[in-house]
Amino acid sequence: MRKRQIAYQVAAAALVAVAIVWIAANAAANLAAQHIASGFGFLGRPAGFEVGESFFLRYNASDTYLRALGVGLFNTLAVSAIGIVLATILGTAIGVLRLSTNSLLRVLCAAYVEFLRNVPLLVQLFFWYALITEGLPPVREALEPLPGVFLANRGIFFPTFSGAPVLQGFNFAGGAALSPEFAALLAGLATYTAAFIAEIVRAGVLSVRRGQGDAALAVGLTRAQALRHVVLPQALRAIVPPMTSQYLDLAKNSSLAVAIGYPDLVSIANTAINQTGQAIEGIAIIMLVYLTISLAISALMNWYNARVAK
Amino acid sequence: MRKWNALFTVLLLLFAGKCLHSFVEWAFVEAVWRPDSGACRAAAGACWGFIADKYRFILFGTYPFEEHWRPAVSTLVLVALWVLSGLRIFWKPGLAAIWAAGLLAIGVLMWGGVFGLPYVENERWGGLILTLLLFTFGVALAFPLAIVLALARRDGLPALRALAVGYIELIRGVPLISLLFMASVMLPLFLPAGMTIDKMLRAQVALVLFAAAYLAEVVRGGLQAIPREQYEAADALGLTYWQRTRSVVLPQALRIAVPPLVGTFIGFFKSTSLVVVIGLFDFLSTVKVSLNDPKWAGFGVEAYLFAAAVYFAFCYAMSLYARRLEQPR
User: Fold this and answer.
1) Which of the residues A119, A121, A262 would you substitute to probe the B interface, choosing the one with the greatest number of B C-beta atoms within 10 Å?
2) Of B163, B185, B298, the CB nearest to A16
3) Which residues of chain B are within 8 Å of residue A80 when distances are taken between CB atoms?
4) Residue A85 neighbours by CB under 8 Å, 6+ apart
5) Which residue from A157, A307, B72, B156 could staple onto B161, CB 3.0 to 4.6 Å apart?
6) Cβ–Cβ below 8 Å for A273 and B185
7) Pick the residue with more confidence: A87 or B263?
8) Whether A13 and A105 share a structural domain
9) Residues of A in Cβ contact (< 8 Å) with B278
10) With bands split at pLDDT 50, 70 and 90, how would you rate the model's confidence at B134?
11) Chain-centre distance of CA B105, in angstroms?
């Protein structure tokens, strides 16, 4: 029996090894036939393409592929991090409001959740992008919903500490701007993920037994105190683990940027693959980076979970 | 407290009513329904004429125009197969035969080449039927793989378990787009020189590999819900591992897993829309490509609302079904 088990395992491992060797041999032969280089040497060569926008890193076309990919990585991290914060705020608000005593509010929030959850994210991203680039007015007639904040089909412009956006020629100067691509991706990721987070928060609050809140009120705590010190700490235990997988999904979904032209990691790696033909290296980089991001988010959330579950 | 609530309701009603009113104005009152792009550009409302003009391409892609009835009938057959499979009275071995007959009919209709139907190569398939086929075959092919992975992860020998865990976590840790890129640019490199597989099949491979990892975790959840006594009873009867798994464990585990499986199916149905990035003409692609017509450029909002409505109809039907399954009978 024991011998047979070992034989099975050796056979399975051998099968996988043979498959890998076969694939590698085919790949080597095909690459040689097509005169495609292999290895990561291309990372040091100039990329030669422009990138639409960049968070943190300065970049121009004469910089290396490595730097271009770094720009993509920071763009991915920026949109994911801001997206996670916005989705958490919006999702928690909607989840809590679904439990409100006001029935109209409950219905509206339920409709939001049902509609957003049942439409593919990519359709929503295309919709947001179309809404910004086609639905918003040109720069000269930009909407100004708040003083100093302008919405136009070339992006969203808002003031910073160093200055406010001013119309100059065909565009705004000064202040800060979000490109239509970034704004559409962020809006899509945040509103879509918020629908899932709302359900998690609602289930988490409902998982705390009713008597807990009543008891807190009976010992003289105010409603806010009861929520803050009694209900929420218990709800968090049910909320944090599924929330982690929503954050992971959001980070992975940010790769849909490539479809609307935001230069995230996948989009830049894809350009690099098209230019160099080095598909294996390019995709390996994408996968490694996402696995690292996934592990990092998991580790961070596990640490947080260990704190709230105490 | 009561008074505030009432006041709040009134304010909310006013706000929601105003939003609804401007939406109705835009979508219906001021809308243009004729396929006339000039009238659309002049109007203040939505341009549904775009859909009226392009619906054949949106639904059937580049399939030959005179033959559109074939994908239309195939779509209806496929939807009917799914509806039948949802009804408990059809949960019998005969269901597999119904599916085989239905898929054979769809294959004959779509490819043709027999019964006087002209042959249509699968590069020309597109639109809604392609989305439904990618979904159906994705689920059908991923499911057996998922069961194997779940069994290996749960009670496999150490080496098999390590392989299953490694596979599931790797696939779940990377975005679907990277798998689709892998299938479209890397898969051809992995095959011996001279051997090629077409784009549709490559996308299908990526979708199957992707779905298998997620379905495996749901099946594993079902396996974990089986009480230990069931295993012990099967062992006491002297059943072998495979007999026990096939006749005792899996039938119960899959039944428990049906509601979360439907949830995974919804997610997978939405994910098939990602094939747009590798240039396949699924439903979302045909909507997007319709906008490339200069006559209709700039009506993206209407186009994607229409796409959203169609996807919503499918996904919401599935989620209502899952909810009904979860209610005690």
Assistant:
1) A119
2) B163
3) none
4) none
5) B156
6) yes
7) A87
8) no
9) none
10) very high
11) 20
Q: What is the pLDDT of residues B82-126, one digit of tens each?
A: 888 888 777 778 888 888 888 888 887 778 778 877 777 877 888
A9 and A137, same domain (yes or no): no
A26, A115, A294 ranked by CB distance to B173: nearest = A294
Contact A253 B175 (CB under 8 A): yes
Interface contact A286-B316, CB threshold 8 A: no
User: Would you list the domain boundaries of chain B?
Assistant: 56-125, 126-329
Find which of B20, B153, B174 to mutate to test the A interface (most A CBs within 10 Å of its CB). B174
Mutate to test the interface with A, among B15, B189, B292 (most CBs of A within 10 A): B189
Q: How close does chain B come to A204, measured CA to CA in Å?
A: 18
The Cα of A163 is separated from the nearest Cα of chain B by a number of Å equal to 34
User: What pTM did the predictor assign?
Assistant: 0.89
Statement to judge: residues A188 and A283 lie in one domain: yes
Domain span at residue A17?
2-35
**Residue A289 CB contacts under 8 Å (≥ 6 apart), including other chains:** A73, A76, A265
Distance from CA of A60 to the nearest CA of B (A): 26
Q: Do A294 and A190 reside in the same domain of the chain?
A: yes
**Interface touch B175/A279, C-beta < 8 Å:** no
Same domain, A13 and A132: no
- Quote the number of domains for chain A: 2
Mean pLDDT, chain A, whole residue set: 85
Same domain, yes or no, for A29 and A129? no
Looking at this predicted complex, what is its ipTM?
Answer: 0.89
- pLDDT by residue (tens digit) across A201-217? 998 888 888 888 889 88
Q: A288: nearest CA in chain B?
A: B174
Residue A125 in any domain: the answer is yes
